[in-house]
Amino acid sequence: MDAQHGTFDEVRARLEQIVDEVNAEGVTLDEALSLYEEAVKLGLSACDMSEQDALEAAEALNEADAEGAADAAGAAQAAGANAGAGADAPVGTGADAKPAEAVARHSEEGFHEE
Q1: Do residues 105 and 99 make contact, with C-beta atoms less than 8 angstroms apart?
Q2: What is the maximum alpha-carbon separation in the chain?
Q3: Which residue, 3, 23, 71, 95, could crosslink 45 as a Cys pair with Cβ 3.0–4.6 Å?
Q4: Nearest-angstrom CA–CA distance, 78 and 72
C-alpha cells in the first residue's frame, strides 16, 4: 500500500499487520527494516490525514462562527434601526399618535384620553 493513499482506517490496519509481521518468528533484519520504513511512512501519512481533518473541521467551525456573527450583527443592526426610529421620531407621530392640540385641550379640561 502506498503511504499516501487509503483511509485512516486502512493505514491503521496496515500498521497492525506490520506489527504482527515484525513480531513473527523468522523475520530477517532486512525484512524488519523494510517493514519499519513502511510503518514510518504510514505513520506520517496518518498524521497528515489527521491534521487535514483537523484543519477542515476548524475551517468549517470558523465559517459557521462567521455566519452566526454576520446573522447576529444583522439582527442587532435591524434592532438598532427600529429602536432608533422611535427615539428620533418627533412627538405626536406614529400610528397611535394624538395631535398635540387635542392632548393639551383634554389636559386642561381634566379629561385624559387613553
Answers
A1: no
A2: 114
A3: 3
A4: 10
